[in-house]
Design brief:
Layout: H1 4-10, H2 14-17, H3 24-34, E1 52-53, E2 77-84, E3 88-89, E4 93-96, H4 107-111, E5 114-116, E6 119-123, E7 129-132, H5 134-147, H6 155-168, E8 180-189, E9 201-211, E10 222-227, H7 251-259, E11 264-269, E12 274-278, E13 281-288, E14 295-299, H8 310-322, E15 329-332, H9 337-345, E16 349-356, E17 360-369, E18 372-375, H10 386-399, E19 408-410
Parallel strand pairs: 1-4, 10-11, 10-17, 14-15
Antiparallel strand pairs: 2-3, 2-4, 2-9, 5-8, 6-7, 6-8, 7-19, 8-9, 11-12, 12-13, 13-14, 13-16, 16-17, 17-18
Helix pairs in contact: 5-6
Bound molecules: pyridoxal-5'-phosphate (PLP).
The site of pyridoxal-5'-phosphate has 14 residues, from β13, α8 and β16.
């Protein structure tokens, strides 16, 4: 069937075929309504096929794997795409890793128009490079960017670009278990005016940092301090988005916890003191449920105050598939810190762990809460519980392609 636009062009509707353009906006509206082919005025979409590559003339020497520090060293190149409200997405570029040039008035510096992602590229046993659930990172970045009036983009196109970039830089991925190329897609508003409004220009860039295993000598369980004097996120807020502005305010409470000897802080919320997240990880709690008598793996529900972790979703998916048949319940629900403490006292707290891309899982030994130490179920000589160990092995097995799984994306 012919589109209304084709019909209009050929014969029937001359007034639709040649709109009387009052202004650009009216023309765009007309296009959106009646045009199926891009024309001069349509904003350009992000298009991976337009990628150009400019190679560095000063390739870096690879660091010995053991010297890699998370996020401290970067590869030779970066992926960069400009966007303007007038033209849409420009042609993507891979260029030598370089400093950005921005006007001091650029809106990113004043009003925090910034959002980001964290994901990894892995090298499998056959030497192929893989991404883990990149579609999840793309949809989350789109949710983050559009929440702060930055542009959206076609996630499949950015996945293609990131894939090409990761392959291009693959000499930086050490060929050993636990090593990966940490990828940091970032979008910033670049408009140079101090007026507070939607940015008329933006930059999407991706940098890459080779990283080693989070726990090079095996798990080391961490101790947390429950933070009740500050909140990370609140209903109707933006705690479920990966906005840069969410992170700076978390450092002081983290320093406070560190000054008292705790590696991370545990964010409680509300009068009920619901357990939400740990540092920048989601949190899982395994208990023996008092009412049902069954083992239950619990994480906070996505009520807008919880970051929608890709690892969180993967732990939940695997738990539903592989733990429920073993008699477990798996719940996304609120749980009070006092209930966690009670479970510990009654010997029903089985284990607690954080989840995130950096470490996959991070076992917790104790939580300081109201002047007491809640013991999270690990024996003295244990650094991880059964579920945390199992999850790490399952997820890592998929990420490195030992287990063929739809979540792993070969480049
Ligand atoms: C990134 C992040 C997570 C973990 O998300 P993953 O996709 O699993 O890496 C959890 N909480 C916060 C606050 C985060 O920023």
């Amino acid at each position: 069937m012919k589109s209304i636009q084709q019909l209009a062009r050929s014969r029937a509707l001359p007034s639709f075929a040649t709109p009387r353009v009052q202004n650009v906006r009216a023309h765009r509206l007309w296009q959106r309504s009646f045009s199926s082919t891009p024309a001069a005025f349509e904003l350009a979409r992000l298009d991976a096929s337009k990628l150009t590559i400019k190679k560095t003339t000063t390739p870096k020497e690879l660091l010995p794997s053991k010297d890699l520090v998370f996020g401290a060293n970067f590869t030779d190149h970066m992926l960069s795409v400009e966007w303007t409200a007038k033209d849409g997405w420009h042609a993507p570029q891979i260029v030598p890793y370089q400093k950005l040039q921005l006007d001091p008035s650029a809106c990113v510096f004043h009003y925090a128009f910034e959002c980001f992602e964290g994901m990894k590229a892995y090298r499998d046993a056959k030497g192929q490079v893989r991404l883990f659930r990149p579609d999840k990172n793309m949809s989350r970045l789109n949710k983050s960017s559009t929440r702060i009036a930055l542009p959206s983009f076609d996630g499949d196109e950015l996945t293609k670009l990131i894939g090409q970039f990761a392959k291009f830089e693959s000499r930086f991925i050490p060929d050993a278990r636990g090593y990966a190329l940490y990828l940091r897609p970032t979008m910033i508003g670049t408009q140079s005016t101090l007026g507070v409004g939607p940015p008329g220009s933006a930059l999407l860039f991706v940098i890459a940092s080779p990283v080693g295993p989070y726990y090079p000598t095996g798990f080391k369980a961490i101790s947390l301090e429950a933070t009740d004097y500050a909140v990370r996120a609140w209903p109707g807020g933006v705690g479920d988005k990966k906005l840069g502005a969410n992170y700076a305010p978390c450092i002081v409470p983290q320093q406070q916890a560190a000054s008292r000897g705790f590696q991370q802080n545990l964010w409680l919320f509300g009068e009920e003191e619901y357990v939400t997240e740990v540092g920048t990880m989601n949190l899982f709690i395994a208990i023996k449920n008092k009412e049902t008598g069954k083992k239950e793996l619990i994480t906070a529900d996505l009520d807008g105050t919880i970051l929608e972790g890709v690892t969180r979703d993967s732990v939940l998916g695997l738990a539903r598939e592989r733990l429920i048949p073993q008699g477990w319940d798996v719940s996304e629900r609120k749980i009070r810190m006092s209930d966690v403490a009670e479970a510990a006292e009654e010997g029903r707290l089985l284990e607690v762990f954080g989840s995130g891309t950096a470490a996959i899982v991070s076992p917790v030994r104790t939580i300081s809460y109201r002047g007491k130490l809640v013991n999270c179920g690990l024996k003295e000589n244990e650094e991880a519980g059964e579920i945390a160990l199992q999850m790490k092995n399952w997820i890592e097995g998929i990420q490195y392609g030992d287990e063929e799984h739809p979540w792993s994306h070969v480049l």
